[in-house]
Amino acid sequence: MGRTPAPGIVYTTGLGAICPGCRRPVADCVCRKADGRPARDQVIRVSREVAGRKGKGVSVVTGLPLGPAELETLAGDLKRRCGSGGTVRDGRIEIQGDHRDLLVEELGKRGYKVKRAGG
User: Mind listing the pLDDT tens digit for each residue in 91-101?
Assistant: First the structure.
């Protein structure tokens, strides 16, 4: 792509979601790869969102230092573990329903540092 968005923009229709660290599109993010820490040392956050879903909540996993193919594979494993549907959107995994405790436990077993974010 090569285009860099304006400093205050977090989403544009032309580029999609913007990484807050390197100010590039999430697909072209370089800070997750070049921050010097091994992938398993980054903190993964598990939260719950209901905005824009007509009151239906989803559990959201963010901060995973994985590529698109690995995210899809992990999302499939987590969806099976929770017995629920979900998707990968903008570099984050969304699982239908409130499964935060189960997701924190499962990701912890896989060696990630996990924090439960939000209320």
Answer: 889 999 889 89
Q: What pTM was estimated for this model as a whole? A: 0.65
Neighbours of 109 (CB within 10 A): 9
From residue 39, give the alpha-carbon distance in Å to each of 6, 42, 98, 100. 28, 6, 26, 21
CA–CA separation, 70 vs 26, rounded Å? Answer: 15
Q: What is the DSSP letter of 105?
A: H
Q: Please state the domain extents for the chain.
A: 1-35, 37-116
CB 11 within 8 Å of CB 91: no
CATH number belonging to domain 37-116: 3.30.780.10
Burial (CB count within 10 angstroms: exposed 0-12, middle 13-18, buried 19+), residue 46: buried
Task: Return the number of other C-beta atoms located less than 10 Å from residue 43's C-beta.
Answer: 11
